[in-house]
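INTERNAL AUDIT FORM
Audit reference: QA-55
Scope: verify that the stored structure record matches its stored sequence.
Auditor: D.O.
Record contents follow.
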Amino acid sequence: MRHVIALDVGGTGMKAALIGEDGTPLHRARRPTGREHGPEAVVGNILDFAAELRAYGVEHHGGPAAAAGLAVPGIVDEENGVAVFAANLGWKDVPLRDLLARRLGMPAALGHDVRTGGLAEGRLGAGRGADRFLFVALGTGIAGAIGLDGRVEAGAHGFAGEIGHIVVRPGGLACPCGQRGCLERYASAAAVGEAWAAARGEPGADAAGCAEAVAAGDPDASRVWRRAVDALADGVVTALTLLDPRTLIVGGGLAEAGDVLFRPLREALDSRVTFQRMPAVVPAALGDGAGCLGAGLLARDLLTTTPTTSEVST
């Protein structure tokens, strides 16, 4: 059966699948990245994992995969297939696409994890049918993906969609990127957890606990939450002004709060837009499997005569 290999690499773990021609996962697997052993070990583990998946396809599905797709965190140059930088994995200028293609003996594609997840949400998930969408992932940080007619825009240097580094509070909190007042310092799950822990005087308090307290009517939690939602709305309105998406898809850990997030976010956006058109604001639909599904889409695009993403094969 014709299929492709899909790999989604995170900071500590890897998710993978063999995906059939109709998009159905034929096999799923997980492995640790092994980052405690250093960046070279992580690269080796990725290649070994991919080789295991190739062998599984030969044994169980009649032959090797036709192509492979790999999604990784950090700064990614999709055009040249290079993982430019990933602090949590210790990478700098690693030619992952070429390494993967040589190891497997098949075409390979490399994508940024959030942009790849956004690709899946746009084609298969909450943005299905939308010609223009913006996917925003609210996790430890905040990142985004700009969807255009079935593909995701990477930008000239691999930075497109970095909505988390829009400055929403000039002169505000310092960000590891070197700026002050970045959106992710106020509206990420990590930022909400930090603010809630300070308000509670409990170092272990987190964003999920804050959302639960908001739903229960806790005034301190509501203040923390409002601060985050206001910052998020300010950042999103800037993105709406620049991109004019038809659909805004919000995912990541903070989006798991459901209406506790989406109701005030829609209200905050409504109060801010003037000439801009308000997009449909919807929760992501594919959960933590989006990156893996998106990696499969990158691989499948390599098998078409006219690729519909900005990723380029070897």
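Auditor finding: record pair retrieved intact. The domain at 3-116+288-301 is CATH 3.30.420.40 (Nucleotidyltransferase; domain 5).
Action required: none
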